[in-house]
Amino acid sequence: MSTPHTPAARDTANGGPATTDSTADAPLVAVEDLTISAGGRTLLHPTSFAIGAGERVGLIGESGSGKSLTSQAIMGLLPQELTARGSIALAGGSGNLLQQSESQLARLRGREMSMVFQEPMSALNPLMRVGDQVAEVMRIHRTAGAARARERAVELLDSVRLPDPAAAARAFPHQLSGGQRQRVMLAMALANSPRLLICDEPTTALDVTVQAQVLELIGEAVERENTGLLFITHDLAVVAGVCERVMVMYRGELVESGTSEQIFTDPQHEYTRGLLAASDLTATDARGRLFTIATAAQYHSGAEAGSDTDSDPGRTTGAATSTPAGEATRGGVGTSADPDAPLIEVTDLVKTYRRTKSSLFGRADEVPALGGISLSIPAGRRFGIVGESGSGKSTLLKILSGLDTPTSGRVRVGDVEVGSAGEAELRRMREDLQIVFQDPFASLDPRMRVADIIAEPLVPMGVAAGERRSRVADVLQAVGLDADSAQRYPHQFSGGQRQRISIARALVCRPRILVADEPVSALDVSVRAQVLNLLTDLVEEYALTLVFVSHDLGVVRHLCSDVAVMRGGEIVESGPVEEIYTDPQHPYTADLVAATPTLAAVFADAGSDPRERP
Amino acid sequence: MLRYVLVRVLQFLLTAWIASIIVFALMQVLPGNAAQVALGTNATPEAVARLEAEYGLDRPLVVQYLDWIGGVVIGDFGRSYVTEADITPVISDSIQVTLIVVIASMALALLIAVPLGTAAAVFHNRAAGVAISGASQVGIAIPNFLAAIILVMIFSLGLGWFPSSGWRAPIEGIGEFLERLVLPVTALALVQAAILTRYVRSAVLEVMREDFLRTARAKGLTAGRALVKHGLRNAAIPVVTVAGVQLATLLIGAVVIEQVFVLPGMGSELVRAVSNRDLLTVQGIVMVLVVLVLLLNLIVDLLYSVLDPRVRRAA
């Protein structure tokens, strides 16, 4: 970053280990003994911290750790049913924010402190033009008159680099993409030059390349205005790139706090160490598995493991294990006529969707989703498909699993031509090919017992009830769930456990192919490592061919042997994963690799603040 | 946007045309022809034949249909076989009464339901909210004719505040007009308000959970102002759907209420025409009621696109 720094920013950034002391003269926000409870249950144990003017502080932790509650408490946006005790003071403000009325707090929100939320798709009013929504924040606080506010709104939209800001101001939210909406949110948050900006997982719902742009924008804006930043995320790599100080929350407690350097090179708390180990997709244990919180002790501190990532021994172990698994499979299930033929073959696949007709007599618009792609997956390979939203990866998956039909082209799975297959053939194909979906919360029927969910694929296959019970018990054990889970309902399980249930359901009919559609993108980092390890174990144990769709290049690199990179309905590049990752040929692949925040990059910079060292 | 309006209007015309065929066909499948029905069971075959010839009922059905619908399009519903008077003035007089009653009822129902439903949502976990929900539950269970009778007993027979029945046109005296309107409109509106209150409540509850409401508060609005400025218009969308459907049932409800309060509306005319065995008048009134319902649906559809920009583009 070559932009000149303001003196204040430099001071706090170079503050050294005891960062809290460097903001000695009245910090921007001082949180003391903040406690949040619901009924008798304590959700946040007494927590104290301070953020100095212009300081960039990261708050990390997994879902339910209390990080979002903390930010809501500062903004005065806690749900009514929760009670907060302790004190939150804003520099130059009038005492404890927790004791102020809604109207007093409203005067501060959007003016002194503002917030960018996680979900850009639902955070804007769908019925109001974007420009009006940005202008509103100035009208509320009377920082600009009506005409001036409209002008400023366009300027602000320009400053967050929306192309054609005047047109964007006239647009409604549904006409913008997720990344564009998040820029609008940022423009809104910055409109009155607040002293404190809170970002709650602002890039989690965005594609990696968009994420990189939005992060850069946040960094620039905060630096320009010398705004204090509280950046909440579960992604360690993201926080390391943005913040100079990091706080770690775990089960409603602030367990560790220090400079980014300290946290990433010398984590003190067990959970922080585990989180760091589980986040590092390039480091594996002796069996080629990712580290989890439980096995983190064997993980050498990030700086060591990461300083020479490319020659990391763990990585080689990981790559080595994939080969025997592949070999075993090829011998094991050679049921198709020609054993050397690829198990899955896609030839010139085209899919065009028809948009609903826009007039009674006009022609329907055709939207190409897949523009003639070909790929072949030999039995036993672990094939990754990487792409951002709109790349066509989900469409490809749907056609592959017979849930949608191609416009033209051929798809063969085993000996079944999927495109032209009848119901009976498709049913036979699905015994061989099973899917694990992205959202572990929405993809399980909430009114069915786990045993029935898992056994369901066996019913059309005509498997007897007794046999079904024993197979359910087997797969439950295989995915690491207790036998008594069978009689419970999905809502009684956590996200990671539900994804295990999904995997069990997929495996119960002993398929040869497991298709996984972003199976870990909704999970916390520590859980992600466990589920990925489970997948690796099962792929080996059941000699599966894996088709793994993800937006996350790091995950695919760890798990897969081959990868195809998709963009705009085309495969721009494909080949062995390590080759693609280290030596991308297509500029888009290179962009994707560069945009993905990795801990390795963080460690490479360890010992230096990435923002301060040129 | 213009295209959306055009498509909706075309759909309306098409549906109305199909409805006219159905209405016409229904009258034909009734036993006996219109002339026979009009003259009664004692009529001589000669008398029936004379009436048939006079009104062209001996022509092929297609010709009769085209003749009828051609008239309806230019506002001529034909001449009654029974009273030998033109039907059009009967319809145009009574439609005013019915529309005034229906629209006033819906307006009153919304005036009650929107604030009450919103309050029920905002205070949903407090006594006030629970009380409103309970009251609306009771309101839904009361049929509007019963409400009408109770209102008459209290405010007309008991307190003597309002006349128990009758109608004055506005030009005959606005005070007398309003005085006679209060009870029938209230009777119709109370039940509607109870139903709509529940929908407003759930729509507002839904919208209160929306992320953009939290955004509005983060921008510096208090929770209450955020709800008024950003929430209510969003909550209006599902409410408009229900209100549109309810308008159609109000129209039917008006037929009953007109009987109770002796109003010269379409309901009263319909009942009279049926008891007079005046098939052509019945046919005309039913057709107008059908077109009114379709027209209300069209208006609701167009209202959507005013309320919701997403509908504008999708069309």
From TrEMBL, chain A:
Protein's UniProt keywords contain Transport: yes
Keyword ATP-binding: yes
PANTHER family: D,D-DIPEPTIDE TRANSPORT ATP-BINDING PROTEIN DDPF-RELATED, TRANSPORT ATP-BINDING PROTEIN
InterPro entries xrefs: AAA+_ATPase, ABC_transp_ATP-bind, ABC_transporter-like_ATP-bd, ABC_transporter-like_CS, Oligopep_ABC_C, P-loop_NTPase
Keywords in alphabetical order: ATP-binding, Nucleotide-binding, Transport
PROSITE patterns xref list: ABC_TRANSPORTER_1, ABC_TRANSPORTER_2
Listed name of the protein: Dipeptide ABC transporter ATP-binding protein
CDD domains (UniProt xref): ABC_NikE_OppD_transporters
Region entry Disordered, spans: 1-26, 302-340
Gene Ontology molecular-function annotations: ATP binding
Annotated SMART domains: AAA
Similarity-based family: Belongs to the ABC transporter superfamily.
Limits of the ABC transporter domain: 29-276, 344-593
Membrane-crossing segments per the record: none
Pfam families linked: ABC_tran, oligo_HPY
Organism superkingdom: Bacteria
Automatic annotation (TrEMBL), chain B:
ABC transmembrane type-1 domain mapped to chain residues: 95-304
Keyword annotations: Cell membrane, Membrane, Transmembrane, Transmembrane helix, Transport
Keyword Ribonucleoprotein assigned: no
Membrane topology term: Multi-pass membrane protein
Transmembrane segments: 12-30, 99-123, 135-161, 181-200, 235-262, 282-304
Main location class: membrane
Pfam families: BPD_transp_1, BPD_transp_1_N
UniProt-listed InterPro entries: BPD_transp_1_N, MetI-like, MetI-like_sf
Entry's localization field: Cell membrane
Family label: Belongs to the binding-protein-dependent transport system permease family.
Classification via PANTHER family: DIPEPTIDE TRANSPORT SYSTEM PERMEASE PROTEIN DPPB-RELATED
Annotated protein name in UniProt: ABC transporter permease
